Amino acid sequence: MATRIIHLPKYSRLSCLVKPLTISARTFATATASTNPPQFTTLSVDDRTGIATLTLNRPPANALNALFMGEIQRSITDLEKENCRGLILTSSSQRIFSAGLDLKECYKADVASLEGLWCALQNLWRTLFSTPLITVALINGHAIAGGCMLAVSSEYRIMLPNFKIGVNETMVGLAVPSWLMDTYINIMPSRRIAEWDLTSSRIYSSESALKAGLVDELASSKEEALQKSAAFIDSFSKRTLMARAITKQQFRAEILRNFEQNRQHDLDIYLSTMQKPSMQEFLGEYLQSLDAKK
Ligand SMILES: CCCCCCCCCCCCC/C=C/C(=O)SCCNC(=O)CCNC(=O)[C@H](O)C(C)(C)COP(=O)(O)OP(=O)(O)OC[C@H]1O[C@@H](n2cnc3c(N)ncnc32)[C@H](O)[C@@H]1OP(=O)(O)O
Protein backbone atom coordinates (compact mmCIF):
# COMPACT_ATOMS: atom_id res chain seq x y z
CA MET A 1 0.00 0.00 0.00
CA ALA A 2 2.66 2.52 1.02
CA THR A 3 4.35 2.95 -2.32
CA ARG A 4 5.99 6.06 -3.72
CA ILE A 5 5.02 7.30 -7.14
CA ILE A 6 7.58 5.58 -9.28
CA HIS A 7 7.68 3.75 -12.58
CA LEU A 8 4.98 6.03 -13.91
CA PRO A 9 5.53 6.13 -17.64
CA LYS A 10 6.26 9.54 -19.08
CA TYR A 11 3.16 10.65 -20.86
CA SER A 12 5.22 11.48 -23.89
CA ARG A 13 5.99 7.78 -24.18
CA LEU A 14 2.35 6.76 -24.32
CA SER A 15 1.37 5.71 -27.76
CA CYS A 16 -2.39 5.72 -27.40
CA LEU A 17 -4.36 8.52 -25.81
CA VAL A 18 -7.94 7.35 -25.70
CA LYS A 19 -8.22 4.20 -23.66
CA PRO A 20 -10.71 3.29 -20.94
CA LEU A 21 -9.51 3.49 -17.35
CA THR A 22 -9.09 -0.03 -15.98
CA ILE A 23 -7.02 -3.05 -16.89
CA SER A 24 -3.55 -1.66 -16.43
CA ALA A 25 -4.47 0.70 -13.61
CA ARG A 26 -2.15 0.32 -10.65
CA THR A 27 -3.28 1.36 -7.22
CA PHE A 28 -0.95 2.75 -4.65
CA ALA A 29 -1.08 5.21 -1.84
CA THR A 30 0.59 8.59 -1.95
CA ALA A 31 3.41 9.40 0.40
CA THR A 32 3.13 12.41 2.70
CA ALA A 33 6.83 12.98 2.48
CA SER A 34 9.68 11.03 1.02
CA THR A 35 10.03 8.96 4.19
CA ASN A 36 6.48 8.87 5.54
CA PRO A 37 3.85 6.43 4.39
CA PRO A 38 0.58 7.99 3.23
CA GLN A 39 -2.40 7.96 5.52
CA PHE A 40 -5.32 9.65 3.90
CA THR A 41 -5.05 9.30 0.13
CA THR A 42 -4.81 6.61 -2.47
CA LEU A 43 -3.55 7.19 -5.96
CA SER A 44 -4.11 5.00 -8.96
CA VAL A 45 -2.55 5.72 -12.32
CA ASP A 46 -3.59 4.23 -15.63
CA ASP A 47 -0.36 3.46 -17.45
CA ARG A 48 -1.94 3.63 -20.87
CA THR A 49 -3.89 6.86 -20.59
CA GLY A 50 -1.72 8.79 -18.16
CA ILE A 51 -4.79 9.57 -16.07
CA ALA A 52 -4.39 9.54 -12.29
CA THR A 53 -7.19 9.12 -9.77
CA LEU A 54 -6.52 10.56 -6.34
CA THR A 55 -8.99 9.29 -3.75
CA LEU A 56 -9.51 11.22 -0.52
CA ASN A 57 -9.79 8.85 2.40
CA ARG A 58 -9.97 10.53 5.77
CA PRO A 59 -13.18 9.25 7.38
CA PRO A 60 -15.71 10.25 8.36
CA ALA A 61 -15.88 13.56 6.46
CA ASN A 62 -12.59 14.03 4.60
CA ALA A 63 -12.13 17.06 6.84
CA LEU A 64 -8.99 18.85 5.75
CA ASN A 65 -6.21 18.94 8.34
CA ALA A 66 -2.60 19.94 7.64
CA LEU A 67 -1.28 16.41 7.11
CA PHE A 68 -4.11 15.46 4.76
CA MET A 69 -3.78 18.65 2.71
CA GLY A 70 -0.01 18.14 2.53
CA GLU A 71 -0.55 14.65 1.13
CA ILE A 72 -2.93 15.88 -1.55
CA GLN A 73 -0.60 18.69 -2.50
CA ARG A 74 2.44 16.43 -2.76
CA SER A 75 0.55 13.94 -4.89
CA ILE A 76 -0.25 16.64 -7.41
CA THR A 77 3.34 17.85 -7.47
CA ASP A 78 4.64 14.30 -7.92
CA LEU A 79 2.22 13.67 -10.78
CA GLU A 80 3.39 16.84 -12.51
CA LYS A 81 7.00 15.68 -12.28
CA GLU A 82 6.04 12.36 -13.82
CA ASN A 83 4.36 14.11 -16.74
CA CYS A 84 1.04 12.60 -15.88
CA ARG A 85 -1.67 13.96 -18.14
CA GLY A 86 -4.80 14.36 -16.06
CA LEU A 87 -6.02 14.05 -12.50
CA ILE A 88 -9.39 12.94 -11.17
CA LEU A 89 -10.01 13.95 -7.58
CA THR A 90 -12.63 11.91 -5.72
CA SER A 91 -13.61 10.49 -2.33
CA SER A 92 -13.67 7.00 -0.86
CA SER A 93 -16.79 7.96 1.10
CA GLN A 94 -20.17 7.30 -0.43
CA ARG A 95 -21.69 10.48 1.02
CA ILE A 96 -19.01 13.09 1.69
CA PHE A 97 -16.54 14.44 -0.89
CA SER A 98 -15.10 16.80 1.72
CA ALA A 99 -16.66 18.76 4.61
CA GLY A 100 -13.96 21.42 4.32
CA LEU A 101 -11.45 22.47 6.91
CA ASP A 102 -11.20 20.22 9.93
CA LEU A 103 -13.16 22.37 12.35
CA LYS A 104 -12.29 20.10 15.25
CA GLU A 105 -8.66 21.10 14.70
CA CYS A 106 -9.65 24.79 14.66
CA TYR A 107 -11.28 24.50 18.07
CA LYS A 108 -9.15 25.56 21.02
CA ALA A 109 -6.04 25.14 18.88
CA ASP A 110 -2.76 26.97 19.55
CA VAL A 111 -1.50 29.58 17.10
CA ALA A 112 1.12 27.30 15.57
CA SER A 113 -1.51 24.67 14.73
CA LEU A 114 -3.89 27.25 13.28
CA GLU A 115 -1.07 28.68 11.20
CA GLY A 116 -0.07 25.21 9.99
CA LEU A 117 -3.65 24.48 8.98
CA TRP A 118 -4.15 27.71 7.08
CA CYS A 119 -0.77 27.58 5.29
CA ALA A 120 -1.52 24.00 4.23
CA LEU A 121 -4.87 25.18 2.84
CA GLN A 122 -3.22 28.04 0.96
CA ASN A 123 -0.52 25.74 -0.44
CA LEU A 124 -3.00 23.09 -1.51
CA TRP A 125 -5.22 25.63 -3.25
CA ARG A 126 -2.22 27.18 -5.00
CA THR A 127 -0.95 23.83 -6.23
CA LEU A 128 -4.31 22.54 -7.45
CA PHE A 129 -5.36 25.82 -9.03
CA SER A 130 -2.09 26.33 -10.90
CA THR A 131 -1.27 22.77 -11.95
CA PRO A 132 -0.69 22.16 -15.67
CA LEU A 133 -2.49 18.81 -15.27
CA ILE A 134 -6.02 18.53 -16.61
CA THR A 135 -8.07 18.39 -13.43
CA VAL A 136 -11.53 16.93 -12.80
CA ALA A 137 -13.37 16.88 -9.47
CA LEU A 138 -15.56 13.79 -9.27
CA ILE A 139 -17.87 14.98 -6.50
CA ASN A 140 -19.39 11.81 -5.10
CA GLY A 141 -20.69 13.37 -1.88
CA HIS A 142 -21.23 16.67 -0.07
CA ALA A 143 -18.63 19.33 -0.85
CA ILE A 144 -18.82 22.16 1.68
CA ALA A 145 -16.53 25.20 2.05
CA GLY A 146 -12.98 23.83 1.66
CA GLY A 147 -14.56 20.80 -0.07
CA CYS A 148 -16.16 23.12 -2.58
CA MET A 149 -12.80 24.87 -2.91
CA LEU A 150 -11.24 21.61 -4.13
CA ALA A 151 -14.03 21.32 -6.70
CA VAL A 152 -13.93 24.87 -8.02
CA SER A 153 -10.12 24.89 -8.20
CA SER A 154 -10.36 21.97 -10.61
CA GLU A 155 -11.17 22.58 -14.27
CA TYR A 156 -14.25 20.38 -14.58
CA ARG A 157 -16.82 19.13 -12.07
CA ILE A 158 -18.92 15.99 -12.31
CA MET A 159 -21.29 15.41 -9.41
CA LEU A 160 -23.49 12.58 -8.23
CA PRO A 161 -27.14 13.41 -7.41
CA ASN A 162 -28.65 14.31 -4.05
CA PHE A 163 -25.65 15.94 -2.43
CA LYS A 164 -24.85 19.48 -1.29
CA ILE A 165 -22.18 21.85 -2.54
CA GLY A 166 -21.26 25.42 -1.67
CA VAL A 167 -19.25 27.88 0.37
CA ASN A 168 -20.88 28.72 3.72
CA GLU A 169 -18.35 31.05 5.35
CA THR A 170 -20.45 34.17 5.69
CA MET A 171 -23.14 32.13 7.44
CA VAL A 172 -20.69 31.57 10.26
CA GLY A 173 -19.62 35.22 10.31
CA LEU A 174 -16.47 34.88 8.23
CA ALA A 175 -15.43 36.66 5.07
CA VAL A 176 -14.58 34.49 2.09
CA PRO A 177 -10.84 34.86 1.31
CA SER A 178 -10.25 36.79 -1.91
CA TRP A 179 -8.43 33.88 -3.59
CA LEU A 180 -11.41 31.59 -3.00
CA MET A 181 -13.76 34.31 -4.22
CA ASP A 182 -11.69 34.71 -7.41
CA THR A 183 -11.62 30.95 -7.92
CA TYR A 184 -15.39 30.77 -7.62
CA ILE A 185 -15.91 33.69 -9.99
CA ASN A 186 -13.52 32.02 -12.44
CA ILE A 187 -15.88 29.10 -12.99
CA MET A 188 -19.36 30.60 -12.52
CA PRO A 189 -21.16 31.73 -15.68
CA SER A 190 -22.06 35.04 -14.05
CA ARG A 191 -20.10 37.21 -11.62
CA ARG A 192 -23.39 38.47 -10.27
CA ILE A 193 -24.52 34.98 -9.29
CA ALA A 194 -21.10 34.30 -7.78
CA GLU A 195 -21.43 37.38 -5.58
CA TRP A 196 -24.92 36.34 -4.52
CA ASP A 197 -23.81 32.83 -3.71
CA LEU A 198 -20.82 33.82 -1.63
CA THR A 199 -22.47 36.67 0.23
CA SER A 200 -25.47 34.52 1.10
CA SER A 201 -23.59 31.26 1.84
CA ARG A 202 -25.68 29.51 -0.76
CA ILE A 203 -25.54 25.75 -0.62
CA TYR A 204 -26.76 24.06 -3.79
CA SER A 205 -28.18 20.61 -4.35
CA SER A 206 -26.37 18.65 -7.07
CA GLU A 207 -29.26 19.30 -9.43
CA SER A 208 -29.42 23.07 -8.80
CA ALA A 209 -25.62 23.29 -8.98
CA LEU A 210 -25.83 21.89 -12.51
CA LYS A 211 -28.46 24.46 -13.49
CA ALA A 212 -26.42 27.30 -12.01
CA GLY A 213 -23.22 26.18 -13.75
CA LEU A 214 -21.37 25.42 -10.53
CA VAL A 215 -20.95 21.85 -11.75
CA ASP A 216 -20.61 20.80 -15.38
CA GLU A 217 -22.28 17.39 -15.44
CA LEU A 218 -24.21 14.99 -13.25
CA ALA A 219 -23.60 11.25 -13.31
CA SER A 220 -25.85 8.60 -11.85
CA SER A 221 -23.04 6.44 -10.45
CA LYS A 222 -19.38 6.74 -9.59
CA GLU A 223 -18.54 4.41 -12.44
CA GLU A 224 -20.34 6.63 -14.92
CA ALA A 225 -18.68 9.67 -13.40
CA LEU A 226 -15.24 8.06 -13.84
CA GLN A 227 -16.01 7.42 -17.49
CA LYS A 228 -17.16 11.00 -17.98
CA SER A 229 -14.07 12.31 -16.19
CA ALA A 230 -11.78 10.27 -18.42
CA ALA A 231 -13.72 11.45 -21.48
CA PHE A 232 -13.17 15.08 -20.47
CA ILE A 233 -9.44 14.52 -20.06
CA ASP A 234 -9.29 12.57 -23.32
CA SER A 235 -11.02 15.40 -25.14
CA PHE A 236 -7.68 17.24 -25.14
CA SER A 237 -5.41 15.69 -27.69
CA LYS A 238 -1.78 15.01 -26.94
CA ARG A 239 -0.73 17.58 -29.49
CA THR A 240 -2.40 20.41 -27.58
CA LEU A 241 -1.26 19.57 -24.06
CA MET A 242 1.58 22.05 -23.71
CA ALA A 243 -0.30 24.93 -25.32
CA ARG A 244 -3.35 24.04 -23.25
CA ALA A 245 -1.39 24.07 -19.99
CA ILE A 246 0.20 27.44 -20.77
CA THR A 247 -3.15 28.91 -21.73
CA LYS A 248 -4.73 27.61 -18.51
CA GLN A 249 -1.93 29.14 -16.48
CA GLN A 250 -2.27 32.46 -18.26
CA PHE A 251 -5.97 32.52 -17.42
CA ARG A 252 -5.16 31.89 -13.75
CA ALA A 253 -2.00 34.01 -13.43
CA GLU A 254 -3.61 37.18 -12.15
CA ILE A 255 -5.51 35.37 -9.43
CA LEU A 256 -2.28 33.70 -8.37
CA ARG A 257 -0.40 37.01 -8.35
CA ASN A 258 -3.07 38.62 -6.18
CA PHE A 259 -2.89 35.68 -3.83
CA GLU A 260 0.90 35.91 -3.47
CA GLN A 261 0.66 39.63 -2.73
CA ASN A 262 -1.95 39.02 -0.01
CA ARG A 263 -0.82 35.67 1.35
CA GLN A 264 0.42 37.03 4.69
CA HIS A 265 -2.58 39.32 5.11
CA ASP A 266 -4.88 36.38 4.41
CA LEU A 267 -3.13 34.33 7.10
CA ASP A 268 -3.28 37.22 9.59
CA ILE A 269 -7.03 37.60 9.08
CA TYR A 270 -7.59 33.90 9.63
CA LEU A 271 -5.45 33.81 12.78
CA SER A 272 -7.05 36.86 14.35
CA THR A 273 -10.56 35.62 13.49
CA MET A 274 -10.03 32.15 14.84
CA GLN A 275 -8.49 33.39 18.08
CA LYS A 276 -11.45 35.58 18.97
CA PRO A 277 -13.27 34.16 22.02
CA SER A 278 -16.61 34.78 20.29
CA MET A 279 -15.49 32.73 17.26
CA GLN A 280 -14.23 29.89 19.44
CA GLU A 281 -17.49 29.92 21.35
CA PHE A 282 -19.44 29.82 18.11
CA LEU A 283 -17.24 27.06 16.75
CA GLY A 284 -17.85 24.97 19.89
CA GLU A 285 -21.61 25.37 19.40
CA TYR A 286 -21.32 24.61 15.70
CA LEU A 287 -19.44 21.38 16.39
CA GLN A 288 -22.04 20.42 18.97
CA SER A 289 -24.77 21.01 16.42
CA LEU A 290 -23.04 18.57 14.06
CA ASP A 291 -22.90 15.98 16.82
CA ALA A 292 -26.49 16.67 17.87
CA LYS A 293 -27.76 15.45 14.50
CA LYS A 294 -27.18 11.90 15.67
C1 LIG B 1 -17.68 27.83 12.56
C2 LIG B 1 -16.94 27.75 11.26
C3 LIG B 1 -15.52 28.17 11.38
C4 LIG B 1 -14.85 28.21 10.04
C5 LIG B 1 -13.39 28.44 10.13
C6 LIG B 1 -12.77 28.88 8.81
C7 LIG B 1 -12.27 30.29 8.87
C8 LIG B 1 -11.82 30.81 7.54
C9 LIG B 1 -12.86 31.46 6.66
C10 LIG B 1 -12.72 31.28 5.18
C11 LIG B 1 -12.28 29.92 4.81
C12 LIG B 1 -12.40 29.42 3.45
C13 LIG B 1 -11.77 28.09 3.32
C14 LIG B 1 -12.52 26.97 3.90
C15 LIG B 1 -13.01 26.94 5.18
C16 LIG B 1 -13.72 25.73 5.64
O1 LIG B 1 -13.72 24.71 5.01
S1 LIG B 1 -14.56 25.81 7.11
C17 LIG B 1 -15.45 24.26 7.21
C18 LIG B 1 -16.88 24.46 6.92
N1 LIG B 1 -17.55 23.17 6.81
C19 LIG B 1 -18.75 22.95 7.25
O2 LIG B 1 -19.39 23.84 7.81
C20 LIG B 1 -19.32 21.56 7.04
C21 LIG B 1 -19.88 21.01 8.29
N2 LIG B 1 -20.40 19.67 8.06
C22 LIG B 1 -21.60 19.43 7.49
O3 LIG B 1 -22.33 20.34 7.11
C23 LIG B 1 -22.01 18.00 7.37
O4 LIG B 1 -21.17 17.22 8.18
C24 LIG B 1 -21.95 17.44 5.94
C25 LIG B 1 -20.59 17.66 5.29
C26 LIG B 1 -23.04 18.11 5.08
C27 LIG B 1 -22.22 15.93 5.98
O5 LIG B 1 -23.44 15.68 6.65
P1 LIG B 1 -23.76 14.18 7.13
O6 LIG B 1 -23.61 13.23 6.00
O7 LIG B 1 -25.08 14.24 7.81
O8 LIG B 1 -22.59 13.81 8.16
P2 LIG B 1 -22.37 14.34 9.66
O9 LIG B 1 -22.97 13.37 10.60
O10 LIG B 1 -22.79 15.76 9.79
O11 LIG B 1 -20.79 14.32 9.80
C28 LIG B 1 -20.09 13.08 9.84
C29 LIG B 1 -18.92 13.25 10.77
O12 LIG B 1 -18.03 14.22 10.23
C30 LIG B 1 -17.77 15.24 11.18
N3 LIG B 1 -17.56 16.50 10.46
C31 LIG B 1 -18.37 17.04 9.56
N4 LIG B 1 -17.84 18.19 9.09
C32 LIG B 1 -16.66 18.36 9.71
C33 LIG B 1 -15.62 19.36 9.65
N5 LIG B 1 -15.69 20.40 8.81
N6 LIG B 1 -14.55 19.21 10.44
C34 LIG B 1 -14.43 18.15 11.27
N7 LIG B 1 -15.38 17.17 11.38
C35 LIG B 1 -16.46 17.28 10.60
C36 LIG B 1 -19.01 15.24 12.05
O13 LIG B 1 -18.76 15.84 13.29
C37 LIG B 1 -19.28 13.76 12.16
O14 LIG B 1 -18.32 13.23 13.03
P3 LIG B 1 -18.63 12.02 14.01
O15 LIG B 1 -19.62 12.58 15.01
O16 LIG B 1 -17.34 11.68 14.64
O17 LIG B 1 -19.22 10.94 13.17
Can you walk me through this structure?
With 294 residues, this protein is of the alpha/beta class. The chain has one domain (41-292): 2-enoyl-CoA Hydratase, Chain A, domain 1 (Alpha-Beta Complex), CATH 3.90.226.10. It is 46% helix and 16% strand. The protein is built from nine helices and eleven strands. The strands form two sheets. It has a seven-stranded mixed beta sheet with strand order 1-2-3-4-6-8-11, with helices on both faces. The chain has a four-stranded mixed beta sheet with strand order 5-7-9-10. Helix 2 (111-130) runs antiparallel to helix 8 (241-275) and helix 4 (178-187) runs antiparallel to helix 8 (241-275). The longest helix is centred in the C-terminal third of the chain and has 35 residues, at 241-275. The chain is globular, with a radius of gyration of 18 Å. The protein starts with 24 loop residues before the first strand and ends with a helix. Residues 1-34 have low confidence and may be disordered. Residues 60-61, 63, 95-96, 99-104, 106, 142, 144-146, 149, 164, 168-169, 172, 174, 176-177, 180, 270, 282-283, 286, 290-291, 293 line the site of ligand LEDWP2DD.
Summed up, the domain count is 1
The number of distinct β-strands equals 11
State the assembly state of the protein chains: single chain
Strand content: 15-25%
Associated small molecules:
ligand LEDWP2DD
Secondary-structure map:
Elements (H helix, E strand, L loop, with lengths): L24 E5 L11 E6 L4 E6 L9 H16 L4 E6 L4 E3 L12 H20 L3 E6 L2 E3 L1 H8 L2 E4 L4 E3 L11 H10 L3 H9 L3 E3 H7 L4 E2 L3 H13 L6 H35 L1 H16 L2
Parallel strand pairs: 3-4, 4-6, 5-7, 6-8, 7-9, 8-11
Antiparallel strand pairs: 1-2, 2-3, 9-10
Bound molecules: ligand LEDWP2DD.
The site of ligand LEDWP2DD has 32 residues, from strand 7, helix 3 and helix 9.
Subunit structure: Homotrimer.
Pfam families: ECH_1
Main location: mitochondrion
